[in-house]
């Protein structure tokens, strides 16, 4: 299918005796919101590490836009158009909100400092693009606040902005609401909805919160013990007896929050 942006074939990695990701074959469609669900230790983050070049698979292949990218470095994956945020927050705490995003916009525009000062137009573009992203991530009222002084939830939004600045064709988000307060979670959900509706990028989300996954996803992929348990639309997946058994048996996926 030509609308498949990302595909894995029998993707596997083993750590000693542990098959952390085991023969996972999935296709992710362009412009569909895909979520990856699964209990703690299911292999979700490892799966992202494999498709974004952080880990080299011990077996299988990764295709991005039809091209075999198996074994590419994280940097090569970013250049190919893959953006990712991490389970732990990654911002420059001593820099302001604006500076954090601007650095990311700048690196995406591949503008060196010398050129930056010569080309005023380019500078204006970067400034405007930075402001556009600050509006999108709802931090336009805090441009000069030091990132380290933001709340945890705001830092996660900033991190999202930094990834968006790179204009990724696929956005891999690993639990963007991890550690957020109950008030902050709906804000992040709305933000992801806005990004989805803008259609600028294809989002793949790892998330534990079932209501959030259901509200956002077109497709849900369930991993358990490193293996693909099932995939499909939210209704089909949540009614799948194997998924229900994994929930009840494992008791680790939080179905209510
Ligand atoms: N670099 C590594 N070396 C050894 N074992 C690892 C490594 N990375 C992950 N693992 C193991 O692989 C398994 C899957 O871990 P992973 O972090 O992918 O799970 P997860 O589904 O993201 O879990 P969580 O929901 O808790 O974030 C775990 O048992 C973990 O301990
Ligand atoms: Mg994880």
User: Which structural class do the helices and strands define?
Assistant: alpha/beta
In total, the number of strands is 10
Q: What's the quaternary structure here?
A: single chain
The Cα radius of gyration reads 19 Å
H/E topology pattern: EEEHEEHEHHHHEHEHEEHH
- Identify the bound ligands: adenosine-5'-triphosphate, magnesium ion
> If strands are numbered along the chain, what order do they take across the biggest sheet?
6-7-8-3-9-10
CATH superfamily of the largest domain: P-loop containing nucleotide triphosphate hydrolases
The appropriate CATH architecture of the largest domain is 3-Layer(aba) Sandwich
- Report the principal-axis shape: globular
Describe the structure concisely for a colleague.
This protein has helices spanning 44-51, 74-80, 97-109, 113-118, 120-136, 152-164, 184-198, 210-216, 234-238, 241-250, and strands at 4-15, 18-29, 34-37, 59-64, 67-68, 82-85, 170-174, 202-206, 219-224, 227-232. The protein is of the alpha/beta class and 257 residues long.
Question: Could you explain how this protein is built, in words?
Answer:
This protein has two domains: 171 residues, Rossmann fold (3-Layer(aba) Sandwich); 77 residues, no CATH class. Helix content is 39%, strand content 24%. The strands form two sheets. Strands 6-7-8-3-9-10 form a six-stranded mixed beta sheet, with helices on both faces. A hairpin with a 2-residue loop joins strand 1 and strand 2. Helix 3 packs parallel to helix 6. It is globular. The two termini are 35 Å apart. The C terminus is likely disordered.
